[in-house]
């Protein structure tokens, strides 16, 4: 099982989409292993978006990500990183295909509703950035045997 980080961004919080987005992950069969609301700071965003600090739009990205509190989630399942990235869709919401979260709810490249970790390695780093270990819970819902074939549960 993998666990990945999802951030419900201010663009979704402003538009009252929190419940709907959480519900999409639950309905897919992913486990919400951790979830909390927090106000992001410039410090944590400079770390989280280190690959973008030199881009001309970075100050807009900072402002956008601090506009409201966000909801951070630890989302668990077999191949969760790839599954969640697939559900998230392309970075530019106008290009994200319908059926993805960005494709269904966004119109912007920046105000693109959710963040999702892009690799298992980054998921580990990003989860540690936003959660203390005791905030991520090790449980499996009762529906689990209906979601996976037994061998898949060893993945
Ligand atoms: N972003 C932006 N303009 C760009 C590229 C990215 O505003 O040209 C923002 C956008 O909110 C994106 C975030 O920076 O989600 C992180 O960019 P990344 O390339 O990591 O895309 P993601 O992994 O979120 O699809
Ligand atoms: Mg990224």
3D architecture notes:
This protein is an alpha+beta fold and 155 residues long. 39% of the residues lie in helices and 17% in strands. The chain contains 8 helices and 4 strands; from the N terminus they run βααβααβααβαα. A 4-stranded antiparallel β-sheet has the order 2-3-1-4. The chain is globular and about 50 Å long. The chain starts with a strand and ends in an 8-residue tail after the last helix. The mean pLDDT is 97. It binds uridine-5'-diphosphate (UDP) and magnesium ion. Uridine-5'-diphosphate binds at residues 49, 52, 57, 61, 91, 109-110, 112, 115, 118. The site of uridine-5'-diphosphate has 10 residues, from loops.
How large is the count of helical segments?
Answer: 8
Shape by Cα distribution? globular
Low-pLDDT regions? none
End-to-end gap? 6 Å
State which percent range the strand residues make up: 15-25%
The main sheet comes to: 4 strands, antiparallel
Radius of gyration: 15 Å
Query: Which structural class best describes the helix and strand composition?
Result: alpha+beta
Q: Order of strands across the widest beta sheet?
A: 2-3-1-4
List ligands, each type once.
Answer: uridine-5'-diphosphate, magnesium ion
The percent of residues in helical segments reads 25-40%
Order of helices and strands: EHHEHHEHHEHH
Q: Based on DSSP secondary structure assignment, what is the total number of beta strands?
A: 4
């Amino acid at each position: 099982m993998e666990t990945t980080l999802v951030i419900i961004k201010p663009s979704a919080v402003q538009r009252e989409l929190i419940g709907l987005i959480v519900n999409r992950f639950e309905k897919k069969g992913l486990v919400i292993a951790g979830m909390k609301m927090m106000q992001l700071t410039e410090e944590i965003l400079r770390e989280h978006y280190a690959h973008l600090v030199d881009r001309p739009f970075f100050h807009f990205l900072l402002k956008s990500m601090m506009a409201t509190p966000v909801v951070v989630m630890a989302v668990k399942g077999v191949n969760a990183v790839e599954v969640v990235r697939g559900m998230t869709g392309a970075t530019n919401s106008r290009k994200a295909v319908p059926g993805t979260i960005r494709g269904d709810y966004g119109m912007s490249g920046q105000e693109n509703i959710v963040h999702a970790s892009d690799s298992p390695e980054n998921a580990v780093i990003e989860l540690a950035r936003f959660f203390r270990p005791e905030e991520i819970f090790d449980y499996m819902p009762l529906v689990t045997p209906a979601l996976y074939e037994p061998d898949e549960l060893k993945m």
